[in-house]
Amino acid sequence: MRGLLNKLVSRSLSVAGQWQQQQLRRLNIHEYQGAELMSKYGINVPKGVAVSSIDEVKKAIQDAFPNENEVVVKSQVLAGGRGLGTFKNGFQGGVHIVKTDQVEEIAGKMLGQILVTKQTGSQGKVVSKVYLCQKLSLVNEMYFAIMLDRKSAGPLIISCGKGGTSIEDLAEKYPDLIIKVPIDVFEGITDEDAAKVVEGLSPKVADRNDAIQQVKKLYKLFCERDCTLLEINPMVETSDNKLVAADAKMNFDDNAAYRQKEVFALRDPTQEDPREVAAAKADLNYIGLDGEIGCMVNGAGLAMATMDIIKLHGGTPANFLDVGGNASENQVVEAFKILTSDEKVKAILVNIFGGIMKCDVIASGIVNAAKHVALKVPVVVRLEGTNVDQGKRILKESGMTLITAEDLDDAAEKAVKAAAS
Predict the structure, then answer these.
(1) Residues 230/145, Cβ–Cβ less than 8 Å
(2) Residues forming the annotated binding site for Mg(2+)?
(3) Which tens digit of pLDDT belongs to each residue from 30-78?
(4) Which long-range contacts (CB under 8 A, 24 or more apart) does 165-169 make?
């Protein structure tokens, strides 16, 4: 057993990292919503209108862009890589600069259609809105971001004199141009800090003092709205010497939902995994993955260890699902509904170490789930801890066909074998 634990500790498994990365994304909002929020803080953004129908497109062109020859049409999905994406109807590109008399045609090819990008996966995301934006006369494109930094234990501002492409590509091609400015969370951003950021942006025509003020306003937004990420790519200079946030990605801390009601009201569940939406309603912690073994565990640490040991035995977990330490039978039923809704799941592994969460409650939940959900895949159950004997008796007397396991290693091995059969 010690050897197994050493392997688990020494391995840098991608599953736990994938779960942590998902958790850090938090609430994400659409570009048009971010632009509206930034404008409230006095941050320069392009004039734009979000529309969801052709009738709204016509009205927006007449009201907002009566004198414009060209307009930028941007599909609104919560994923990057829109410009290089492909719609399932065959239309290429989720971002287009077109003549105003072509906007209706282009928007019509986007609205209600599914856009596939490098970040959506093959299933893509439906475009319910398009964002019609003013075409800017650009002089320069740059990169700007504020994020939370573990090393400095506070916000970190990143700026680069080149933008319009991924920061990974920028860092690889121009590592010396990436400027990082940590901000003292107690002191806040100073004029000196903001000046360093502006120097990193290397503006060509924008007024330096105005640019410093824009940086400070962005930092104020980041703090006051509990952001975990504010990324502008590109940050642009226009021919009228302004620094403008031409595009933005904003994430927010879920723990701040109670005080950021205005922001969290912007959540778009149509852009989220429906399983994750259902899990949130049932007060379950769920993240969908791409494997074939559905997992139901109590406790985040045990859940990640379960996913890791599944990988160790050659399987792949289909999800992270933590029912918590005080789940009810109804929540267990909902958990099974979510697990069985995933067509890729070939087996389910229930791994419970009873402490606050009692094994008999989980067992009753499994039995009730079988009454409400058609369990068409093998179910492996490992129970240990509080009321474990009662739990095992409930499962045995239920008459269900279950695969029982004595420990975590045994459970994972049986789940992988069951999924492969």
Answers:
(1) yes
(2) 233, 247
(3) 999 999 999 999 999 999 999 999 999 999 999 999 989 999 999 999 9
(4) 165/233, 166/80, 166/233, 167/143, 167/231, 167/233
231 is catalytic: yes
Biggest CA-to-CA distance, the chain: 78
Question: Is 277's pLDDT higher than 60?
Answer: yes
Give bridge partners of residue 95 from the DSSP assignment.
74
Torsion of CA 9, 11, 14, 18, to 10 degrees: 20
- 236: which strand partners? 141, 244
Of the candidate ranges 59-63, 88-92, 359-363, 372-376, the one whose mean pLDDT is the lowest: 372-376
Looking at per-residue pLDDT, the higher value among 235 and 123 belongs to 235
Q: Which residues sit in the known binding site for substrate?
A: 298, 355-357
CA distances from 237 to 144, 244, 246, 295, 339 (A): 13, 6, 9, 49, 49
- Measured distance CA(28)–CA(36) in Å, rounded: 14
Binding residues for ATP: 74, 81-83, 141
In the set 143, 219, 286, 413, the catalytic residue is 143
| pLDDT at site 366 | 85
| Four-way CATH pick for 138-265: 3.30.470.20, 3.30.1440.10, 3.40.50.300, 3.30.360.10 | 3.30.470.20
Closest CA to 402 of 361, 297, 393, 331: 393
Q: Which of 31, 231, 237, 292 is catalytic?
A: 231
Residue range 273-420 forms a domain whose CATH class is alpha beta
pLDDT in tens, 175-233: 899 999 999 999 999 999 999 999 999 999 999 999 999 999 999 999 999 999 999 99
Pick out the residues of the known binding site. 74, 81-83, 141, 233, 247, 298, 355-357
| Identical fold, 47-135 and 273-420 | no
Mean pLDDT for the chain overall: 88
Pairing relation of β-strands 319-322 and 347-354? unpaired
pLDDT at 309: 94
Residue 314 backbone zone (phi > 0: left; psi -120 to 50: alpha; other: beta):
left
Count CB-CB contacts under 10 A for residue 46.
17
What's the pLDDT at 358?
Answer: 84
Cα–Cα distance between 317 and 320 in angstroms, integer? 8
User: For 16-40, what is the mean pLDDT?
Assistant: 71
CATH of domain 47-135: 3.30.1490.20
Say whether 143 is catalytic.
yes
Residues 6+ apart with CB under 8 A from 400: 366, 367, 370, 375, 379
